[in-house]
Structure formats: structure tokens, C-alpha cells
Amino acid sequence: MASEQATLAGGCFWCTEAVFDDVIGVSDVVSGYIGGQVNNPTYKQVCAGNTGHAEAVRVTFDPDVISYSEILDIFFATHDPTQLNRQGNDVGTQYRSAVFPHSPSQEAEARAGIERTQAELGQRVATTIEPLAEWYPAEDYHQEYFAREGSRNPYCMAVIAPKLRKFRKSFAARAKAMEDAG
What we know:
By secondary structure, the protein is α+β, with helices and mostly antiparallel strands.
């Protein structure tokens, strides 16, 4: 299996991770921090909004199964890319919408994805394209958070579960849950 990586920030990393964990062709999703000035930041530091980092996910995927362009389409459809430095009640630059391309071709596809999304939504997309920077995996207790805590955490039930339902409805052919159900 060939693999590529995509690094995406779309608000709370628990939400983004849960969606991409359910995508056919994705083999790994890691929550973490990128785009800041502090080495080895902690969750507490990033949440304070003073490090410059974004909560993000690093998605490893098989480009023979799902393209980077399709990864971007899912990303743009499962968060609000028109919000500047916020997603719902999560406010601050750490919750910004951003793409961190791993190559010039990913950067070109990210630009095309933003244009496609703006045309679809009929409004300006606030998602930025930022240089790939040092990646710091989040603390272990953040990894696979929804899978472990989703059924008993009110935030997960109120915010993440609806995102998953939207993904599974809009991208049914790409959802592992739908594949397993079939």
C-alpha cells in the first residue's frame, strides 16, 4: 500500500480525527499541534492560545483508494471553513481552519479545494494554507478520543456525533461505518 499524509486543522482535533478515522483508505489519524513557536507544546499551552499552534490532525491515506482532493472535500464539508479562528464555541487561533501541504502538488490542490468550496458555499472561505511546520503529536489521552469517550462525553455527543452523521450521509461511499454495515 502506498501512503501519503495530509495535515489539516479544522477546529477541535477530536472532531476532525473522528471523521477521518471513518474514511475508507485512511490508515492512521494522529491528533497534534502545528504552526506555532513553542517546542513540544502541551494541550494546556495550546488551549491558552499563546503558542501559535493549531489543533490539527495528520492523516495517513492510500492515494490509490482516496485522493488528496477527496480528503480535502471531506475536510471542508465537515467543519465550517468560513469561520475565522473558531469552530462553534471553540474560539482562538488554535481552532483555525488551515491546510499544511506536504508538497507543491498538495498546495495546488488545497488552493483548488478552497476555490471549489467558496464557489459551492457562495461565500469566502477563511481556511489558510500554511507552510508545513514542526509536528507535535498530542498527548496520548487525546488520541482516538471519540472512539474511547464518545458515548459518555456530552461534548462528543453534541458536537462530534452530528459531524459523523453528516459525513456518513454526504460521503456514504467513503465511510467505513457504511462499508461495515453493508
